[in-house]
Each structure stands twice: as structure tokens, then as C-alpha cells.
Design brief:
about 500 residues, alpha/beta, Rossmann fold, six-stranded mixed β-sheet, about 35% helix, about 25% strand, binds adenosine-5'-triphosphate, binds magnesium ion
Length: about 500
């Protein structure tokens, strides 16, 4: 029998206070798409980081083609043909596509970079991948999906035999996702081994051959996708049954009173936006990626300027030009791009959560640290945040748990208008259900929630009303009773 492409043998990794991986052993075959699944903090990214040489210190061994490897850095891994395409794409926006793909390994002629060859080589890869942008385009002019393609092109440029993807589709449109899957299937046909991490289980059933499940750093098992269904997969990940989660369990509680009214809001990317949000309402914002939803939310929050339009809060006109003013008016925004806008990396959990509500924790200019910690523990329990430690640095949390910290930060302010931009992006199934229940309890307390989401099941399952955007304008306002995928997509595509 041929040796496996990768074999993890008794791999353990300990961070201060956390055993991120505990004696994990499994193998990945040549040319398979192997999914790596588990809840937030289960250890998926840590395992990939070990494979790619981000962490050189760990117990156990990693074998590639039966040979023990231990890369000292990601660039060493790439040279050995082990590449990664990660969600946070490390590209230099000012450089061209070709420069980014070839970086560090540019073709040379008489000691100088051979630009014509570099463009030819990288162009050939892009053409094969079905990408329609030029190798001489500046990276900053590309869409997120196109940037993702550069990550893959880079792997191919280095003749990678193993490519890992860590939540690659979170920022992609449906079309870009389809294109990505098409490419992954082609890579697989070439015999390239793929490791695929995602919280979107539907994707797993579309492209994976097998799935390995981790829970709390331990291996639960490896399953053939053909032999397992979604419920079984979820049960192994979470350790219990999670009932269909994107549904309202509590009764609707929309009240007459208007919390927020927007009239004729206009900026460069959207036009003529008018709508209102009621007390106790979950108002969904659907639309394709790039339809202006995030821009509108940032404008309401005072993070981006508007050309014209009016904003009313509790019936009174309000002038919000900066986020601090929005905050003072009781508006909280959970941004789509949490990593750059949501938290301070080198601050601990308790401080991050208290960041937007310092007033509550300050008396006579003194910060009441005990109260801040209590607030932190309260939300840690409410959202199942792990590890349950207020002193943990947010930069050391898993992606999904970082997200919960940002959410807790806004909830701590007691804001009564909450804008959630893609609230469950990167969040595991169990935590998703917890966030939906939290949203229900917030509206039951009389708060209003605007939820921007690209996940149609969540828009349909959770919203009292849905606004569908198309190219910067409101294409439709749909009541709950009329919601279904076809009608939302129809308006979102501008039909
Ligand atoms: N650099 C670090 N320092 C300290 N602890 C860390 C570090 N990186 C990860 N951890 C911890 O190790 C555990 C596993 O984290 P990891 O990022 O691997 O989870 P994950 O499965 O990728 O989760 P997610 O789905 O949320 O991305 C978590 O408890 C996390 O807080
Ligand atoms: Mg991760």
C-alpha cells in the first residue's frame, strides 16, 4: 500500500493554560480532500500551524511521505511543497499579482529579476485556473475572491503537493465559492492533497472525501463523507444533538415604537436608503456581497461619511459623524471585519469587553477591575466562551471565540440598537445556536437588531422583516411570512 501523504502521530501542543492538541493521530491520503472539523477552539488552526511550520515546538511527529518533517517557518514549508491558503490573505496590495505570486522565488536572469518570464509563468497558472485578471494588475484593485485565487496560484507556482485551506469561503460570493470548488476538484485530479477547514457543513458534503473531527484538542475520529450525514457529523463535533438552529424559538415581539429611522441616505456606494427599525425587531439585510450592506451600516454608525440623508433615533433627529457619537446614542456595531476593527489584539478578554463601556466600570477616574471581570465572566458563560479566563489575550483565542469577545463588548454597553454584520461568520454550529438564542433574548428585552447576513437560512429563520439590497439600492422589503430563498435571490440579483 502506498504511504499516506501526511500522517500526524501523537501530536500535542500546549499553550499556557490550554492543551490545544492532545495526542492527535490520523493520516491523510494522496489526492484526497480531507476536511478538518470541530467547534471553535477545537485545535484545527493549531494543527495546520504545526504542519506549516508556524509552531516549531510541539510533541509528537508529522510525517510527509513517511519522512518526518519539522519546518522552521511557513516559507520553508512552501519550498517543500506544503502551502496554505488562509482566510487572512497575506498579500502586498501595492505590488502586482505576478510579484505577489512569485515573491521570494522570482525567476532570474544574469542575477536580475526576469519580469517577462515572471509574468508569463504566473499568467499561465492564472489562465489554467480560469482567472480573468492580469498578472500585471495591482492586487489592491482585486476583489476578495480574486485575492483568494492568488493564494492558490502561489501554491501552484511552488508546485505544492499539499495545500490547506482554513475557512476559505467566508468572504466569497456564491459564484466565487463555486469557482473555488471547481479549482479544488481540479487540484485533486492532479493528485494534490487538500486539507479543508470550514464551519459550513454543506461545503464539506460538496467537496470532501473524508473528515477528521477534533473536540477540545482531542481526536474524535475520521469518517468517510459518503458514510455519514450532517446530524451525525454535528453530534461528533459538539458531543450532543443541536436541533435545527437558525429558527425562532421565542414568539415574535416587534413593537410599534421606532428605535431608528433612516431617510434618503446617500453616499458614493449606495443611494436613497430609507427604512426603520422597531423595538423588539430583528431586521435582516440580505443581498450579494458588495451590494452596499456593510457600507450602509458603517455610515449609520458614523464610521464612513454620507453625502446626504437623515437619521432619527427614538423619533428625534440625530447627527452621527463619528463612532463615539453612535455609541453615546446607544448604537453598537459588530463589524464584519473583526480582526481589524473589533478588538485590541494584545489586550485581555476582560479589558476588550469593557472597552466600549468604560463609564460603567469607572468611578472617580478609577477603573473598577472587579466589576469588569464580573462583566467578562457573565458573557463568557452566556456565550460558552473558551477558555473561561478573563486574563487571556484575545490574540491567543481561536477565531470564533474572538468573535464572541467583540459581541460581548457591544452587549456590555447596554446599546439598544445593535447592528450585527455577518454575526455567525467563522462560528461553529453550537455557538451559532447560542448567538441566535442571545438575539432572541435581546429583542425580548426591547432592543432592536439589524442583521446583515449572506447566509440565507439565517436571514429567513431569524428575521422579522428582510430588506434585500441590489447594487446599492433597496430592491425589496419582505415581511416574515413571504420569506424564501427564491424570492430573496431574485431581488438580490436585480431581477
Ligand atoms: N498563540 C496562542 N497562544 C495561546 N493559546 C492559543 C494560541 N493559539 C491558539 N490558542 C488556543 O488553543 C486552542 C485551539 O485554538 P485553534 O485556533 O486551533 O482553534 P480552531 O479549531 O481553529 O477554532 P476556530 O474554529 O474558532 O478557528 C484555543 O483554546 C485557543 O485559545
Ligand atoms: Mg481556526
Amino acid at each position: 500500500m502506498a504511504s499516506p501523504a501526511i500522517s500526524f502521530q501523537n501530536v500535542s501542543k500546549v499553550f499556557p493554560g490550554v492543551r490545544a492538541l492532545d495526542d492527535v493521530s490520523f493520516t491523510i491520503e494522496h489526492g484526497e480532500v480531507h476536511a478538518l472539523l470541530g467547534e471553535n477552539g477545537a485545535g484545527k488552526s493549531t494543527l495546520l500551524n504545526i504542519l506549516h511550520g508556524v509552531y516549531a515546538q510541539y510533541e509528537g511527529s508529522v510525517l510527509i511521505e513517511d519522512i518526518r518533517v519539522s519546518f522552521a517557518s511557513p516559507s520553508q514549508a512552501i519550498q517543500a511543497g506544503v502551502a496554505k491558503v488562509h482566510q487572512e490573505i497575506n498579500l502586498v496590495p501595492e505590488l502586482t499579482v505576478a510579484q505577489n505570486i512569485a515573491m521570494g522565488h522570482e525567476p532570474r536572469k544574469h542575477g536580475l529579476i526576469d519580469y517577462p518570464k515572471m509574468h508569463q509563468d504566473t499568467g499561465a497558472i492564472l489562465t489554467k485556473m480560469g482567472c480573468h485578471f492580469s498578472p500585471s494588475a495591482q492586487v489592491k484593485t482585486l476583489s476578495t475572491g480574486e485575492m483568494q485565487m492568488i493564494g492558490i496560484a502561489k501554491a501552484l507556482y511552488h508546485n505544492a503537493s499539499i495545500i490547506s485551506f482554513d475557512e476559505p469561503t467566508t468572504a466569497l460570493t456564491n459564484k466565487e465559492t463555486e469557482h473555488l470548488f471547481q479549482i479544488i476538484r481540479e487540484l485533486k485530479q492532479k493528485g494534490i492533497t487538500i486539507i479543508y477547514v470550514s464551519h459550513k457543513l454543506d461545503e464539506i458534503f460538496l467537496i470532501a472525501d473524508r473528515a477528521t473531527i477534533l473536540r477540545d484538542g482531542r481526536l474524535i475520529g475520521t469518517y468517510r463523507i459518503a458514510d455519514i450525514n450532517k446530524e451525525q457529523l454535528i453530534r461528533s463535533m459538539v458531543g450532543r444533538d443541536v436541533s435545527s438552529y437558525a429558527v425562532r424559538l421565542a414568539p415574535a415581539c416587534v413593537q410599534e415604537e421606532e428605535l431608528l429611522r433612516v431617510e434618503n441616505l446617500r453616499a458614493s456606494v449606495f443611494d436613497d436608503i430609507s427604512f426603520s427599525l422597531h423595538k423588539g425587531e430583528i431586521l435582516g439585510f440580505a443581498g450579494l456581497v458588495g451590494s452596499g450592506r456593510t457600507d450602509i451600516m458603517r455610515a449609520i454608525f458614523g464610521a464612513d461619511p454620507i453625502h446626504s440623508g437623515k437619521l432619527y433615533l427614538h423619533g428625534k433627529i440625530a447627527h452621527i459623524r463619528r463612532p463615539e457619537q453612535a455609541l453615546a446614542h446607544g448604537i453598537g456595531l459588530l463589524p464584519e471585519n473583526r480582526k481589524s476593527q473589533g478588538f485590541v489584539r494584545l489586550m485581555n478578554n476582560a479589558d476588550n469587553m469593557g472597552l466600549a463601556s468604560l463609564k460603567r466600570f469607572t468611578k472617580w477616574l478609577l477603573i473598577n477591575h472587579r466589576k469588569k471581570r464580573e462583566n467578562c465572566l457573565h458573557y463568557m458563560d452566556e456565550m460558552g466562551l473558551t477558555p473561561r479566563n478573563p486574563d487571556y489575550l484575545v490574540s491567543d483565542l481561536s477565531g470564533g471565540n474572538q468573535q464572541k469577545v467583540v459581541l460581548a463588548k457591544w452587549l456590555s454597553t447596554g446599546a439598544d440598537i445593535l447592528i450585527f454584520d455577518e454575526p455567525t461568520k467563522g462560528i461553529d454550529v453550537g455557538a451559532k445556536a447560542e448567538i441566535y438564542r442571545l438575539m432572541e433574548s435581546l429583542v425580548a428585552q426591547g432592543k432592536g437588531i439589524i442583521m446583515v447576513s449572506s447566509e440565507l437560512p439565517e436571514i429567513i429563520g431569524m428575521s422579522d422583516r428582510v430588506i434585500v439590497m441590489h447594487e446599492g439600492r433597496i430592491a425589496a422589503v419582505l415581511p416574515r411570512a413571504e420569506l424564501n430563498e427564491e424570492i430573496i435571490l431574485k431581488y438580490a440579483m436585480g431581477e
